[in-house]
Amino acid sequence: MTDRMQTCDCMVRAGLVITQDDSRTVIADGAVAVDQGIIISVGKAHEMKEKFIPRSDIDLGKKMLMPGLVNAHCHAPMSLLRGVADDLPLMQWLEKYIWPIESGLTREMVAIGAELACAEMMRTGTTAFMDGYFHEDVLGEVAESAGLRVVLGEGFFAFPSPFFATAEDCWQTIESHERRFSQSPFVRNVVTPHAIYTVSPELLSESYELACKLDIPWQIHCAESPAETAQCIELYGMRPLAILESLGLLNDRVTLAHCVDVLPEEIELLSERCVNVVHNPASNHKLDSGIAPVQAMLDAGVNVGLGTDGAASNNQLNMFADMRMAALVGKVQAHDAAAVKAQNALDMATRGSAQCIHWEGLGMLVPGASADMIALDTESPNLMPMHNPISQTVYAASGHEVAMTMVAGHVVYRDGEYSGIDMASLQVRMNEVVKWVRERIS
């Protein structure tokens, strides 16, 4: 029997394995075989032992193994602004507090905020995320060093900003990022105009042409609130999605963040055009932007992912919290307790989000997928008894039951220890930035 056994880099064994495969299989006493950062087999532990000789054996005991979560909409360095300006509507929050602070951020400050965000995300089970901010090359370096996957979105506006005098400056920066990270298995890029009301139609079209030229995704905030819709109608005489449709900017390369204020016929259009939508329930609630009609989108066949948005408008980068909220508020919005089921929410945070960030091989534990996985402590009181693993994952887990986070077959977090982040040093550096932020808003 031994001569027929296959060697592999690692075998991860757990009491439960949530695969998120096409059949949504859950395996009791399961194992995942990993080689060169890729999953090569998933099955019952006793059967896997007879097939593979691992160089490293990770026995997680009774813990639950599942795919790493994918945060499809984030502004990671904004972790530095957590709690700076709470309980305000979107436009007041942006114009009076967030943008004035951001205008003074240095590359060093962005690096500190990025590192803090990476620590929080890997601590709560996120293994990949799509971002939108400034000095994104700094975030790429930080995420790569920490061991997380990231899609960098260098944000821009139609008007000159402290970061870009012109849109052309941003195009050059994005192309520079593409060259800088072209060989990185952890870092990709996305073209990221801020919003329809802050970027002119001409520049929206130009930015999309750049995305096509580089063959990378294109993302934008869209239909985030009724106030945004009113602003678009005042500026252009059309609703946000109608503007994008008139420009030919609705297709499967596109990911739209929010889509709160959308009409039934617009949902059908999103489905017809194969547009990806990222739901951000916590941020939408905190800014009183409204509740996205997620069940209607799912019913129409729209791919819906899940995001936290930034820590300044959510106060957490914890995908477990947003999974739970997505399921709960989805029921309220649809007036149906059966809407946005637990499995729907988990799909959004894994497979759906992976599609939103245009990164194949994420969000599931199947042969050929990336070995990105997390383990939850099922002996945590709030996860007992384990009648239904999917239900417990969405409705009961807080994210702080995560005992291990693995990316590409490498453990980046386990039981309070980070392999690529020095938390003591980070805290010292962060406290200096905190002083600067407080002085700027005083």
TrEMBL record:
<feature type="binding site">
    <location>
        <position position="224"/>
    </location>
    <ligand>
        <name>substrate</name>
    </ligand>
</feature>
<dbReference type="GO" id="GO:0046872">
    <property type="term" value="F:metal ion binding"/>
</dbReference>
<feature type="binding site">
    <location>
        <position position="73"/>
    </location>
    <ligand>
        <name>Zn(2+)</name>
    </ligand>
</feature>
<keyword id="KW-0479">Metal-binding</keyword>
<feature type="binding site">
    <location>
        <position position="309"/>
    </location>
    <ligand>
        <name>substrate</name>
    </ligand>
</feature>
<dbReference type="GO" id="GO:0090614">
    <property type="term" value="F:5'-methylthioadenosine deaminase activity"/>
</dbReference>
<feature type="binding site">
    <location>
        <position position="194"/>
    </location>
    <ligand>
        <name>substrate</name>
    </ligand>
</feature>
<dbReference type="InterPro" id="IPR023512">
    <property type="entry name" value="Deaminase_MtaD/DadD"/>
</dbReference>
<feature type="binding site">
    <location>
        <position position="221"/>
    </location>
    <ligand>
        <name>Zn(2+)</name>
    </ligand>
</feature>
<protein>
    <recommendedName>
        <fullName>5-methylthioadenosine/S-adenosylhomocysteine deaminase</fullName>
        <ecNumber>3.5.4.28</ecNumber>
        <ecNumber>3.5.4.31</ecNumber>
    </recommendedName>
</protein>
<keyword id="KW-0862">Zinc</keyword>
<dbReference type="InterPro" id="IPR006680">
    <property type="entry name" value="Amidohydro-rel"/>
</dbReference>
<feature type="binding site">
    <location>
        <position position="102"/>
    </location>
    <ligand>
        <name>substrate</name>
    </ligand>
</feature>
<keyword id="KW-0378">Hydrolase</keyword>
<feature type="domain" description="Amidohydrolase-related">
    <location>
        <begin position="64"/>
        <end position="412"/>
    </location>
</feature>
<feature type="binding site">
    <location>
        <position position="75"/>
    </location>
    <ligand>
        <name>Zn(2+)</name>
    </ligand>
</feature>
<dbReference type="InterPro" id="IPR011059">
    <property type="entry name" value="Metal-dep_hydrolase_composite"/>
</dbReference>
<comment type="function">
    <text>Catalyzes the deamination of 5-methylthioadenosine and S-adenosyl-L-homocysteine into 5-methylthioinosine and S-inosyl-L-homocysteine, respectively. Is also able to deaminate adenosine.</text>
</comment>
<feature type="binding site">
    <location>
        <position position="309"/>
    </location>
    <ligand>
        <name>Zn(2+)</name>
    </ligand>
</feature>
<dbReference type="InterPro" id="IPR050287">
    <property type="entry name" value="MTA/SAH_deaminase"/>
</dbReference>
<comment type="similarity">
    <text>Belongs to the metallo-dependent hydrolases superfamily. MTA/SAH deaminase family.</text>
</comment>
<dbReference type="InterPro" id="IPR032466">
    <property type="entry name" value="Metal_Hydrolase"/>
</dbReference>
<dbReference type="GO" id="GO:0050270">
    <property type="term" value="F:S-adenosylhomocysteine deaminase activity"/>
</dbReference>
<dbReference type="Pfam" id="PF01979">
    <property type="entry name" value="Amidohydro_1"/>
</dbReference>
